[in-house]
Backbone:
């Protein structure tokens, strides 16, 4: 029984880390994979989603509705920003990254000015479940399911819908897609919006577990960057397995040496991976299958 | 085509010519500004900066010294980003590392025999070596532009997290407590051995002149380096890495060295910052701190070292005057400035102004 | 005559695509040799293997008698291989003069650097364009600039990937003369070329690559009369 307990505890640690990595990197990975832009305002879209979720939830609406509201608002904000700024910088990807950093600064400090240094949060729902004598947060188990559901939904979206087909055509051959009558500008706008909405969703999902401060997005940023770098450009081929591997590293190191070493382990992993696998896991996995 | 035979004469003239050639590289293809008018303006600026403390109170002078503290990190980023084409988001990692190193060294060893100067040099060395290590993994791993930004940013954020959790009493190096999020303090200022009693350089005139000397030396030194072979190759690699490699250059080595240089310069800023304020905190390596060098260099203009220097000082001065209203307002303005630069003058506002002025000057002369 | 380049049993494939299928090839010092073959025959990949941009799966590459298979690109260049790519590979934001200086400065200094730069400006016919940004040159001028950059490092072996691509007939003829001039100075030349008139102008011997292996080798006349060569070209509707 003790063995089962330890195994479950490890599995829980792993699942928790995996869920966090998948959920926090999805938005970043979609925008990077489709547009080649690293969105440095990713953390601020997460913060936006979290703030909206907390506000709506405190109005008494169910948490699920609040989370969806957070994702939708972040997505809309993302589409507006894409229209105003990013659209003018498609031919200069590095500059568009710098621009998103400017947006990040404005958003963090703007929220600090307008809403103050902290906001009342919402408690973690669902309480705890006891498994084999140890108690675990039920909400975190829900998050693990949500991570899997998110991957499945994104897979269906990109591989089973018209939007997905057009979107993938746009990434692979933008000129060809344009020649075939695809409004590539609109596709990029929708993609950026989707990425922002996914970031908002991450914020909404983790809002109940966090302190609501304007800089909360920074908590997610290292993990999501690292996952995208290790994964490479393709979210399914790369980011999901990357999240699994990194979650294993982080869960193991965290269990033995604490949180900080978990994070350092991630960083070392990323540096080693880029040294031996330039292009990340997705380039490597694709090479194997070609 | 028998140029090989000319080598014999070239070798004999090289020794005595190298100093002159280095000075000759003050002007060159990789830097804006040449001729008597430009150098007249530079001299005028140096003279103005040198007599400025005579007309200003000590606090203002100390403040001006504070601006100059940051210019080394900015010029280093200019080399790494503007010249070598590697967009680093994490120069603050080297800044913070050197800042903490200066603190740990001086708290433990003290100020005798000019040790603070040695501590600054050691801190720069440490930051430079750390940058070489990170650079080695990145460039020898052949990672591309965007990823360099992410990796360097991750490095600085992880360092911030690491330092922020060193609050406990077990986190000490010798006498120096790291003190977690509250930061390390109590290190001595830069102290210069002097007959009849050491000079401790607290923020003020003495520190100002040391910094002015360092800024001028660093600026001129970088101009010489960037117009010499090293700079030419860096720019060639930025323009077309494949061709540069196929001319026989080990591009990974050049990029790693440039990155190491940028890290060392960030380290110089970090050590001087700690010596200036006798204080360093983990947030000097945080996300906001990391964004600021990008703002200075982008706004000034990354592809010219003069523009980088001027832009950095101007933006810092603007930032400082806005901070009266609260640093969050100043940061919103910084973010907007960055956005504006990227959208309206991607080569940098100072570079745009300098090229504009030059074409006006040419037109006026016709 | 000794061999400057010897390639033995060179193999390389990417996934299912084989770009070099056991190439054995010897190039004599002082030769002026053309490599032809239909699109996809593996000509450019063969160059990349010689230059060390791809690591071969099997086989050896010897340059001037030394095994260079394990060397990195820049090390091979320093031993005396130089290359001109199909798409002009120049530093567009630098001036023409700077392009040349960057090319030569790792083995030349001071006066010999400026002398070589001057000589190569003349060689490329770009004396009057020396201080222009290289990006504003015409396509042909960019090609010559790159040839000058590749030549000025005084290589023993010069690789040219379709040196006349996109050139006018007049420019093509001038390029041919340029290559003869270089060959007379002792530089061995290996060129990938499609334009058979150009091949006739510059080459004494020709090698035909097909599906990553050597299909035929001989004088121009032998190759033109070779029934198999006509077949592979006609079969792919190339040329």
Residues:
């Amino acid at each position: 029984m003790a063995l089962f307990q330890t195994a479950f505890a490890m599995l829980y640690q792993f699942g928790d880390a995996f869920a966090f990595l998948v959920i926090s990197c999805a938005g970043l990975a979609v925008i990077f994979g489709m547009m080649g832009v690293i969105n440095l305002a990713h953390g601020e879209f997460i913060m936006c989603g979290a703030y909206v979720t907390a506000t709506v939830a405190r109005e008494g609406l169910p948490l699920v509705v609040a989370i969806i509201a957070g994702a939708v608002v972040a997505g809309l904000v993302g589409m507006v920003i894409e229209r105003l700024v990013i659209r003018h910088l498609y031919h200069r990807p590095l500059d568009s990254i710098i621009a998103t950093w400017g947006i990040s600064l404005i958003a963090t400090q703007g929220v600090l000015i307008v809403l103050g240094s902290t906001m009342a949060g919402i408690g973690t729902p669902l309480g705890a479940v006891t498994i084999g004598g140890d108690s675990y947060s039920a909400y975190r188990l829900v998050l693990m399911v949500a991570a899997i559901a998110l991957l499945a939904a994104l897979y269906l979206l990109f591989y089973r819908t018209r939007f997905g087909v057009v979107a993938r055509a746009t990434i692979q051959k933008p000129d060809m897609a344009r020649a075939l009558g695809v409004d590539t500008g609109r596709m990029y706008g929708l993609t950026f919006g989707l990425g922002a909405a996914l970031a908002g969703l991450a914020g909404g999902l983790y809002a109940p577990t966090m302190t609501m401060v304007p800089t909360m997005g920074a908590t997610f940023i290292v993990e999501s960057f690292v996952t995208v770098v290790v994964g490479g450009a393709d979210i399914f081929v790369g980011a999901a397995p990357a999240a699994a591997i990194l979650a294993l590293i982080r869960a193991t190191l965290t269990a033995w040496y604490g949180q900080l070493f978990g994070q350092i382990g991630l960083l070392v992993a990323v540096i080693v991976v880029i040294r031996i696998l330039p292009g990340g896991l997705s380039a490597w996995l694709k090479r194997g299958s070609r | 085509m028998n140029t090989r035979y000319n080598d014999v004469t070239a070798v004999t003239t090289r020794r005595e010519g190298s100093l002159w050639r280095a000075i000759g590289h003050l002007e060159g293809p990789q830097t804006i500004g040449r001729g008597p008018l430009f150098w007249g303006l530079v001299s005028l600026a140096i003279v103005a900066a040198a007599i400025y403390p005579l007309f200003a109170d000590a606090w203002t002078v100390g403040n001006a010294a504070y601006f100059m503290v940051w210019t080394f990190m900015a010029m280093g980023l200019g080399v790494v980003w503007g010249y070598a084409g590697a967009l680093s988001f994490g120069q603050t990692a080297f800044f913070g590392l050197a800042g903490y190193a200066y603190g740990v060294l001086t708290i433990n060893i003290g100020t005798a025999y000019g040790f603070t100067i040695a501590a600054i040099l050691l801190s720069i060395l440490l930051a430079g070596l750390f940058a070489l290590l990170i650079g080695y993994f990145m460039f020898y791993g052949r990672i591309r532009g965007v990823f360099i930004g992410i990796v360097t940013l991750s490095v600085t954020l992880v360092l911030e997290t690491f330092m922020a959790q060193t609050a406990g009493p077990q986190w000490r190096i010798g006498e120096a407590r790291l003190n977690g999020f509250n930061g390390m303090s109590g290190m001595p200022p830069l102290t210069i051995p002097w007959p009849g009693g050491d000079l401790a350089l607290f923020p003020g005139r003495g520190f100002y002149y040391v910094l002015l000397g360092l800024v001028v030396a660093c600026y001129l030194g970088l101009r010489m380096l960037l117009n010499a072979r090293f700079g030419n190759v860096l720019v060639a690699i930025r323009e077309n890495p494949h061709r540069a490699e196929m001319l026989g250059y080990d591009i990974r080595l050049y990029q790693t060295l440039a990155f190491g240089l940028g890290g060392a310069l960030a380290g110089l800023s970090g050590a001087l910052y700690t010596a200036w304020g006798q204080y360093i905190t983990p947030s000097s390596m945080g996300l906001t701190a990391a964004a600021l060098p990008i703002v200075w260099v982008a706004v000034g203009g990354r592809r010219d070292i003069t523009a980088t220097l001027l832009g950095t000082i101007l933006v810092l001065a603007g930032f400082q005057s806005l901070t009266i209203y609260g640093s969050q307002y100043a940061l919103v303005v910084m973010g907007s400035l960055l956005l504006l630069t990227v959208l309206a003058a991607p080569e940098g506002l100072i570079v745009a102004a300098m090229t504009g002025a030059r074409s006006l000057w040419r037109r006026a002369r016709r | 005559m000794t061999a400057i380049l010897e390639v033995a049993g060179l193999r390389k494939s990417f996934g299912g695509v084989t770009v070099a299928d056991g190439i054995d090839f010897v190039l004599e010092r002082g030769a002026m040799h053309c490599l032809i073959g239909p699109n996809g025959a593996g000509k450019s990949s063969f160059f990349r293997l010689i230059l060390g941009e791809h690591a071969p799966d099997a086989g050896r590459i010897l340059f001037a008698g030394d095994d260079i298979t394990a060397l990195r690109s820049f090390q091979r260049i320093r031993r005396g291989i130089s290359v001109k790519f199909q798409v002009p590979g120049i530093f567009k934001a630098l001036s023409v003069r700077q392009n040349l200086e960057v090319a030569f400065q790792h083995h030349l200094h001071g006066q010999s650097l400026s002398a070589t730069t001057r000589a190569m400006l003349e060689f490329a016919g770009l004396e009057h364009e020396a201080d222009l940004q290289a990006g504003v040159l015409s396509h042909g001028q960019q090609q010559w600039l790159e040839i000058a950059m590749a030549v000025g490092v005084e290589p023993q072996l010069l690789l040219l990937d379709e040196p006349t691509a996109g050139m006018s007939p007049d420019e093509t003829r001038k390029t041919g003369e340029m290559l003869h001039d270089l060959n007379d100075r002792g530089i061995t030349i290996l060129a990938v070329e499609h334009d058979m008139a150009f091949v006739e102008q510059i080459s004494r011997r020709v090698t035909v690559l097909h599906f990553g292996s050597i299909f035929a080798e001989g004088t121009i006349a032998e190759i033109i009369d070779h029934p198999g060569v006509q077949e592979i070209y006609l079969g792919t509707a190339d040329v």
